[in-house]
From TrEMBL:
GO biological process, one term: ammonium homeostasis
Keyword Transmembrane helix included in the entry's annotation: yes
Protein name: Ammonium transporter AmtB-like domain-containing protein
Sequence intervals crossing the membrane: 27-45, 57-75, 112-129, 149-169, 176-195, 231-249, 269-292, 304-333
Gene Ontology CC: plasma membrane
Keywords: Membrane, Transmembrane, Transmembrane helix
InterPro entries from the UniProt entry: Ammonium/urea_transptr (IPR029020), NH4_transpt_AmtB-like_dom (IPR024041), RhesusRHD (IPR002229)
């Protein structure tokens, strides 16, 4: 799911497909190795002995998801060396955050692992704020129907396997699978409805749906095993989708320019805001469960539980923002050769790309204009449909 699903999910830029999938694969396999070593180090620091096994591998794949999410925020702006340094730094900081939550706040291990969405989103946003803004005239950050189709393919793949992802660490796996599926199902239905309602012409917008259908899975990730009523999971899925759709309208258009947030793939409203909603839901659910167990008598215990949940949330997001800013400053030193803004969002600076592929990409972006001109010429000179349909290279002046 992390390699194929998120790799294709990030293939939204029209001239950055090779880099989206290729760099994602490289970062995941490197990050998993580093995560296994870091997990073993955490066990050693706690004074335990635990040989690396399949459980360590599962935890590593969950942890490296934070790196993939952060990559979406700086997609097209960072070169491969910067991405590798980002991967190593983020995993170190994420495991430090987990260690603080588990050791000092005594948060259960499987709950600290699900903070990947919160940490990854805000680490990526803080990191992206240190990169220069793309010039207004640069149009390589746009998508095409083909790139959107590949991105939707990755979204569907992630959607199908998300219940197994959320149940990989909790003990009550069947309960986690059920609640995750219910939240995702409601998110999918609500995404189509809200997309049509918020558009001026009543049509579906694939960019919104692609982000919103995953919101329920993000929100319910940290409490999937603790929900015993299906309507709670469905309600959280609905609220998460609403936040994502409204976030794509308000946050991206209003707050991003004001706060100078650069978010290529929309990770803020796809993963960040739903993760915040999930953290709030975890606090409420913990208070309700503790209140029912104690019959609302031991208020001091309720206050302590709330303090632990809120403290873990604040510590995670604060660590992500601070370390993201620090990492962003490190990535822009001259030694790492930061990408010039004119080279943003382009495969040809990192990959051997055939000239025909680039020409076809340009042809796709100019297809409507060329077809209109060819129809006008055909009407004027004999009406033969194929008379003025030239190859893309000839029309665009390429050999």
């Amino acid at each position: 799911m992390v390699i194929f699903g998120f790799g294709f999910f990030l293939m939204v830029l029209r001239r950055y497909g090779f880099s989206s999938t290729g760099f994602n694969f490289l970062l995941v396999v490197l990050g998993v190795q580093c995560s296994v070593v870091a997990e073993d180090l955490l066990v050693f620091l706690r004074g335990g002995r635990n040989a690396a096994g399949l459980k360590s591998l599962a935890k590593a794949f969950v942890s490296v998801t934070a790196v993939v999410i952060s990559t979406g925020a700086v997609l097209g702006r960072a070169n491969p060396v910067q991405l590798l340094v980002m991967t190593l730094a983020e995993l170190v900081f994420f495991y430090v955050s987990r260690y603080i939550n588990e050791t000092f706040l005594e948060v259960p291990e499987h709950l600290t692992g699900t903070h990947v969405f919160l940490f990854g989103a805000y680490f990526g946003l803080a990191l992206a704020s240190r990169f220069p803004e793309a010039p207004p005239g640069l149009d390589k950050d746009r998508s095409t129907p083909k790139s959107e189709l590949f991105s939707v393919l990755g979204t569907v793949f992630v959607w199908v396997f998300w219940p197994s992802f959320n149940s990989i660490l909790p003990f009550s796996k069947m309960q986690a699978v059920l609640n995750t599926y219910l939240a995702l199902a409601v998110s999918a239905v609500a995404a189509f409805m809200l997309s049509a309602l918020t558009s001026k012409d009543g049509k579906f917008r694939m960019a919104q749906i692609r982000s919103a259908v995953l919101a329920g899975g993000v929100t319910i990730s940290c409490i999937a095993e603790r929900i015993h009523h299906p309507w709670i999971a469905m309600l959280l899925g609905l609220l998460a989708t609403g936040i994502t759709i409204l976030g794509s309208h308000c946050v991206q258009r209003c707050f991003n320019p004001a706060l100078k947030l650069q978010d290529t793939s929309g990770v803020h409203f796809t993963f960040g805001l739903p993760a915040v909603l999930g953290a709030v839901a975890a606090v409420v659910l913990a208070l309700v469960e503790a209140g029912i167990d104690t019959r609302w008598i031991e208020l001091s215990r309720l206050g302590y539980d709330a303090f632990v949940c809120i403290g873990a949330f604040c510590q995670t997001i604060s660590t992500a923002l601070i370390t993201g800013l620090i990492t962003g400053l490190i990535l822009n030193i001259k030694l790492l050769k930061a990408v010039h803004v004119s080279k943003y969002f382009d495969d040809q600076f990192y990959w051997e790309v055939s000239f025909k592929i680039i020409s076809d990409s340009l042809w796709g972006s100019s297809f409507s204009t060329l077809m209109k001109n060819s129809r006008d010429l055909n009407k004027k000179y004999g009406g033969k449909k194929e008379l003025f349909l030239f190859p893309a290279q000839t029309v665009l002046g390429h050999p």
